[in-house]
From TrEMBL:
Record's keyword annotation contains Repeat: no
Organism of origin: Chryseobacterium manosquense
TM segment ranges: 6-25, 37-59, 87-108, 263-282
Residues in Peptidase M56 domain copies: 162-254
CDD domains referenced in this protein's UniProt entry, alphabetically: M56_BlaR1_MecR1_like (cd07341)
Coiled coil: 447-513
Keywords associated with the record: Coiled coil, Membrane, Transmembrane, Transmembrane helix
InterPro entries in the cross-refs: Beta-lactam_resp_regulator, Peptidase_M56
Protein name: Peptidase M56 domain-containing protein
Length: 605
C-alpha cells in the first residue's frame, strides 16, 4: 500500500510540473494540434514516468564492491514486515470504489448512445451514420455517428456550419481522446491536474473544429451564429456537442491572430532541451559511477597486493610453516564450502587470540620508547638552543650529550633486542596468516555460489513479503484479530466473570471441607482400614468369622483345606509358598450341601 501511495504522489508531481509548463508557455496559443497531443502525452507520461529510474539508463557499479563490504560487515538479511492492513486497505477500497463508479458512469453513457442508435432512424452519407432525433443534447457526434436535432434545418446557414463543425470532430477522431481522458480521470479521479487537462483537451477540440469550420468563411458571421444558437448545454460522456460552456473562450480564440512561427519554434525546442538535460544527467551519473568503479578497482588491487597468495606463501620456510599449520588455505576456491569457511573463521579467532600477548608486549615497548623519545626531544631542543649560541664548551652542553647517549642506549635496549625482533617477526607472520585467511573468506563471499545464495535469499524474502501482503494472509490476520477481540469480549463479559466467581467460591468451599475435622477423621479411618487390610493381605492366617446354628464360632478343626482338589492339613497350607497361589476360594458351612466350611486353593500352572 505504501508503494501505491508513493506512485500516486509521483503521478501527481509529474502531471503538475508538465501541466505548469503548458500553462506558462502553450496555453491560448493557436497551434492547437501541438497542444492536443502534448496534453495527451502529459496524461500518458504522468502514469509511466514514476516507473522509470535513472539507474535504468546508467552503467552498472563494479561488482567488486561486495568484496569491500565483506571486509566491513557480515551478510545478515533481515526483513521487517509491517501490519498496515486496516487503514491502508480501507483507503485503497475507497479509491477503488470511486474509480469503479466513475468507470461505470462512462460505460453507462456509451451504452445509452448505443441504445439511441437503435431508437432513431439511420442514414448514411460521406462514411458517417446520421441520426435525426428530438434529443435536447443534440447535435453531437460520437466516433462516426452524428446525432442531429429536428429543429435545426441542415440546409440553413446555421445547419451547414454546425455540420462542418461536427464533421471535424469525426474526421480528427476526437472521440478517442475523450474516451481515453474519461478513463484516466475515472481511475485517477483524486488528481485535480488530470481533470484540468481533460477540460483543456475538450476546449482544444472545439478550437480545432471552429478553426476548420470557418475556413474560407466569415469569422465574424460564425461568431454571431454561435451567439445566436440556443441549444441545451447537457451532454453525454465521450460525445462532442456543438455548444458547451466555453463559448466565450471560443469567440476569443476566433478573434485571436495566429501565433508567430518564430515563437512556435522556440516552444517546440523546449522538449528538446528537456531531453538534452535528461541525457546530461545520465552522462553525469555515468561519470560518477565510472569514477566510483575506478576507486573500487584501486582499493581491490591494494587489498590483493597486500594479500600474499598461497603459492607465494608456500615458498621458503615461512610459507611451508603456514601450509603445515593452515592446510585449508591451499584448497581450491571451488572446494571451499560453508564447513571450511567456519573452520577459517574459527582459525581467525584463534590466531587473533594468540596474537594478543605479542601485541600487548609490542604496545608496552612502544609506550616505553615513546616516553624516552619525548625526553630525547626535549633535550635535543635544549642542545639546539645551546648550539645556536655556539656554547659548545659549557658544562650543560656536555651533560646533555652524555644524557642523550644514555637515552639512545635505552632506546637500543628496547628495540634492538632479540626479544623485540622475534616478537615483531611473530606478529608479521601472524598477520600474513590472517591475510591468507581473510583472502579465502573474500573468495567465498565473491564466489558465484555465495552470490546465488544471496540472490536466492532475496527471492525468498520477496516471496515471503508477497505472501504476507497477499489478500489471503491479510484476511487470516484480520480473522485472527476478530477472534481475539471476540475472546477478549467474552473474557470481559459479566457472564464469564460470574462463572469465574462461582468457580472460586466452590474452590474455597472444597478447601474448607477438606480442612474440616469430619473430613480429616474420615481420611484417618480410611487409612487405618487400609493398613489393617494390607496386614491381613500379607498374613498366612485365615480367620473365618462364622457361626453354627447354636451360635458357636467355627474353629480350624471344622475347616477342610484343599490344594488343587487334594485335601491337606492346616500345617501343610501354612508351609505352602504364597507366590504359587493363583486363586483361593472360601466356602461357608452349608454351601452346596457341605456340612463343614472349606478353603480351596488353585496353584499357578
Amino acid at each position: 500500500m505504501e508503494a501505491l501511495l508513493i506512485y500516486f504522489g509521483k503521478v501527481f508531481l509529474a502531471s503538475g510540473v508538465l501541466f505548469l509548463y503548458y500553462q506558462l508557455f502553450l496555453k491560448d496559443k493557436t497551434f492547437h494540434h501541438y497542444n492536443r497531443f502534448y496534453l495527451l502525452g502529459v496524461l500518458m507520461l504522468s502514469m509511466i514516468l514514476p516507473f522509470f529510474k535513472i539507474s535504468y539508463f546508467t552503467i552498472e557499479v563494479n561488482t567488486d564492491i561486495y568484496l569491500l563490504y565483506s571486509k566491513l560487515q557480515n551478510f545478515n538479511s533481515t526483513k521487517t514486515l509491517s501490519h498496515d492492513f486496516t487503514y491502508s486497505q480501507l483507503i485503497a477500497c475507497l479509491i477503488g470504489l470511486v474509480s469503479v463508479f466513475c468507470l461505470g458512469k462512462l460505460f453507462y453513457g456509451i451504452f445509452k448512445i448505443q441504445q439511441l442508435k437503435k431508437e432513431f432512424p439511420q442514414e448514411h452519407f460521406e462514411g458517417i451514420s446520421f441520426y435525426q432525433t428530438n434529443l435536447s443534447e443534440a447535435p453531437f457526434s460520437f466516433f462516426k455517428n452524428l446525432f442531429w436535432k429536428d429543429s435545426i434545418l441542415i440546409h440553413s446557414d446555421l445547419g451547414r456550419q454546425i455540420l462542418k463543425h461536427e464533421m471535424v470532430h469525426i474526421e480528427q477522431k476526437h472521440s478517442r481522446d475523450k474516451i481515453f481522458t474519461e478513463m484516466v480521470t475515472a481511475v485517477f479521479w483524486w488528481n485535480p491536474v488530470f481533470h484540468l487537462i481533460k477540460k483543456e483537451i475538450i476546449l482544444i477540440h472545439e478550437y480545432l473544429a471552429d478553426k476548420k469550420a470557418i475556413k474560407n468563411s466569415d469569422t465574424k458571421a460564425f461568431a454571431q451564429m454561435l451567439l445566436a444558437s440556443h441549444f441545451s448545454g447537457t451532454q453525454l460522456p465521450a460525445t462532442s456537442p456543438f455548444l458547451n460552456s466555453n463559448l466565450k473562450k471560443r469567440l476569443t480564440m476566433l478573434k485571436k491572430s495566429k501565433t508567430k512561427y518564430s515563437y512556435a519554434r522556440r516552444i517546440l525546442a523546449l522538449p528538446l532541451l528537456f531531453a538534452l538535460a535528461f541525457i546530461y544527467m545520465i552522462n553525469a551519473k555515468n561519470k560518477e559511477i565510472t569514477k566510483t568503479n575506478l576507486e573500487i578497482e584501486q582499493m581491490v588491487a591494494e587489498i590483493k597486493k597486500d594479500t600474499i597468495t598461497p603459492k607465494d606463501a608456500a615458498q621458503g620456510t615461512d610459507g611451508t610453516e603456514i601450509q603445515k599449520e593452515n592446510p585449508e588455505l591451499f584448497t581450491d576456491n571451488d572446494s571451499l564450502n560453508e564447513t571450511a569457511l567456519k573452520k577459517i573463521q574459527d582459525k581467525i579467532a584463534q590466531k587473533q587470540k594468540l596474537m594478543e600477548p605479542y601485541k600487548e608486549l609490542m604496545l608496552k615497548k612502544n609506550e616505553e620508547g615513546l616516553k624516552i623519545s619525548k625526553e630525547m626531544r626535549a633535550k635535543s631542543e635544549e642542545l639546539q638552543k645551546l648550539s645556536m649560541k655556539k656554547d659548545f664548551e659549557s658544562p650543560r652542553f656536555k651533560d646533555l650529550e652524555k644524557e642523550m647517549k644514555v637515552l639512545d642506549g635505552k632506546i637500543s635496549e628496547i628495540f634492538d633486542t632479540e626479544e623485540f625482533k622475534n616478537n615483531q617477526k611473530v606478529i608479521e607472520l601472524k598477520f600474513i596468516e590472517l591475510d591468507q585467511l581473510y583472502a579465502k573468506m573474500d573468495d567465498y563471499y565473491n564466489s558465484d555460489a555465495f552470490k546465488l545464495k544471496i540472490k536466492d535469499a532475496e527471492e525468498r524474502a520477496k516471496e515471503a513479503e508477497k505472501k504476507f501482503n497477499s489478500p489471503e494472509f491479510k484476511k487470516k490476520m484480520m480473522d485472527a484479530e476478530l477472534k481475539m477481540k471476540e475472546a477478549e469480549k467474552k473474557w470481559n463479559s459479566p457472564e464469564f466473570k460470574r462463572k469465574i466467581k462461582e468457580a472460586e467460591k466452590r474452590a474455597k468451599e472444597a478447601e474448607k471441607m477438606i480442612n474440616s475435622p469430619e473430613f480429616k477423621k474420615k481420611i484417618a479411618d480410611a487409612e487405618a482400614k487400609a493398613k489393617i487390610a494390607a496386614e491381613q493381605a500379607n498374613s498366612r492366617i485365615i480367620v473365618l468369622n462364622n457361626q453354627n446354628k447354636n451360635g458357636n464360632i467355627l474353629t480350624d478343626d471344622n475347616i477342610k483345606i484343599f490344594i488343587d482338589g487334594k485335601p491337606v492339613s492346616k500345617t501343610e497350607m501354612d508351609q505352602f509358598p504364597p507366590e504359587k497361589i493363583d486363586k483361593m476360594e472360601v466356602f461357608k458351612k452349608g454351601f452346596h450341601g457341605n456340612t463343614n466350611a472349606e478353603i480351596r486353593i488353585t496353584t499357578k500352572k
